[in-house]
Amino acid sequence: MLRDIDHFIAGEAYASGGRTGDVFDPNRGEVQAKVRLGTAEELQRAVDAANAAQPAWAATNPQKRARVMFRFKELVETHMDELAELLSSEHGKVIADSKGDVQRGLEVIEYCCGIPQSLKGEYTQGAGPGIDVYSMRQPLGIGAGITPFNFPAMIPMWMFGPAIACGNAFIVKPSERDPSVPVRLAQLMTEAGLPDGILNVVHGDKEMVDAILDHEDIKAISFVGSSDIAQYIYSRGTANGKRVQAFGGAKNHGIVMPDADLDQVVNDLAGAAFGSAGERCMALPVVVPVGDETADRLREKLIPAIEALRVGVSTDADAHYGPVVSQAHKERIESYIQMCADEGGELVVDGRGFTLQGHEKGFFIGPTLFDHVKPSFKSYKEEIFGPVLQMVRAKDFEEAVRLPSEHDYGNGVAIFTRNGHAAREFTNRVNVGMVGVNVPIPVPVSYHSFGGWKRSGFGDIGQYGQEGIRFWTKNKVVTQRWPDGSVTGENAFVIPTMG
Ligand code: NAD
């Protein structure tokens, strides 16, 4: 009998009938559980629970809300091993990466422990005669998060942490491919003292997502996933009058200047291009060496480093990365490898046909390297999201700035150099949202904000940090005057005119 993965509504598991989806063990290529695929009916149940609980939660003072975050942080730390194992078993990433997934989410929770400070408004005394003006940030009511498969702990926490700390109720719709960790996190929030109904998890696919997009009581939606779906979420959600931030796919470039420390670059690329099997929106799947000489030297060092990467099951502590998430995704990545070869890319290391003894049905792909990839290739323009590194040779610095700037995606980019001026020029001019200087995966720390540009991000408010607080609240400005009844004559209270 396969395990069922239920919704989590009003503080408890909720089993709906109807359709279910397969949840695989990517290491073995076998179905390990069934997730319920909910409908507008289950969503309504979650919305009812959220509506019942939210006013009291919003009225709970921010310090008490922060205490729940503190307790949750401690619980997640205590359950780190369990969460990482659960995450790896459905996603396929190695345990160390799963712990990183949990940890990067937890850092946003730590930021939320300071919510009383973040929510403080502004105040002006004496804006007019006897008039003071102040602002306050109020919660929206109910928020929702629709999340991708690749960070099943981090991204839900990026969303529900700030939303809940700000006084909202929240509904998470996780990826149906690895839905268990968000449920476990919601259980731990309940254990931490969060009132029932403030954090609900509903499972499903497009049907559930559409129900969320159309539900009148859901005031804001945060989405992370692929770009076409992000654009759809943004259009339909905003057309329904909701606040929406929708983060999409990526094709991040790593620029390698001739003066870069190539050993460091190779080490960084091994992790950033192939770690987590390349299934990271901040991965570096494109490397741009500046000048043929740099490219040749880099290639010489890269090949042995790539060949030394160990691909293994997600519980293999020595493996650099594990299987990809599904058979369909494996086939999609392999079709891009074929496409890039057909387009004229030089296939230097071919990861297709990789099998792991004892796990022949697992969704494994070996690391793959292409050289002489051209900007006109479809395989360069599109996101592959697998362990595939494409080398695009730039003739000079100007071309290296142009490539990521003109690409449709604009999530992250990195430059490797020892030249401060080149780095400064690059960071100023490049048309991309998050930039690393000798940092391959420049995901901003929790007290800054995350957000890509162009087709990597629809909407204009970033995820977490102060932008996250802005996203999950609305600003109210109060202009107040307290007339003193004893004041008479020329000081008597009069209604101000606009003149
Ligand atoms: P996806 O777009 O397939 O799914 C994301 C979510 O959308 C899931 O919850 C899914 O159920 C839902 N969904 C799927 N199809 C839908 C449809 N037709 N209508 C409505 N909802 C639908 O993405 P994924 O494969 O789970 O995740 C990988 C993608 O996410 C990659 O493109 C990656 O770059 C991107 N990503 C982006 C960021 C970022 O911050 N920019 C972070 C992580 C992942």
Topology:
Blueprint: E1 3-5, E2 7-9, E3 12-14, E4 20-25, E5 30-36, H1 40-59, H2 62-78, H3 80-91, H4 95-112, H5 115-118, E6 123-128, E7 131-139, E8 142-146, H6 154-165, E9 169-173, H7 180-191, E10 199-201, H8 206-214, E11 218-224, H9 227-239, E12 243-247, E13 253-256, H10 262-274, E14 286-289, H11 292-307, H12 327-342, E15 346-349, E16 368-371, H13 378-381, E17 388-391, H14 397-406, E18 409-410, E19 412-416, H15 420-429, E20 434-437, E21 453-454, E22 457-458, H16 465-471, E23 473-481
Parallel strand pairs: 1-5, 8-9, 8-11, 9-10, 11-12, 13-14, 13-19, 14-17, 16-17, 19-20
Antiparallel strand pairs: 2-3, 4-5, 6-7, 7-23, 12-22, 15-16, 18-21
The structure holds nicotinamide-adenine-dinucleotide.
Overview of this structure, please?
The chain is 39% helix and 21% strand. It is an alpha/beta fold and 499 residues long. It has two domains: 3-248 and 456-478, Aldehyde Dehydrogenase, Chain A, domain 1; 253-437, Aldehyde Dehydrogenase, Chain A, domain 2. The chain is globular, with a radius of gyration of 25 Å. The termini are far apart. The model has no long low-confidence stretch (mean pLDDT 96). Bound molecules: nicotinamide-adenine-dinucleotide. Nicotinamide-adenine-dinucleotide (NAD) is lined by residues 146-151, 173, 175-176, 205-206, 209, 224-226, 229, 247-250, 281, 383, 385, 411, 452, 456.
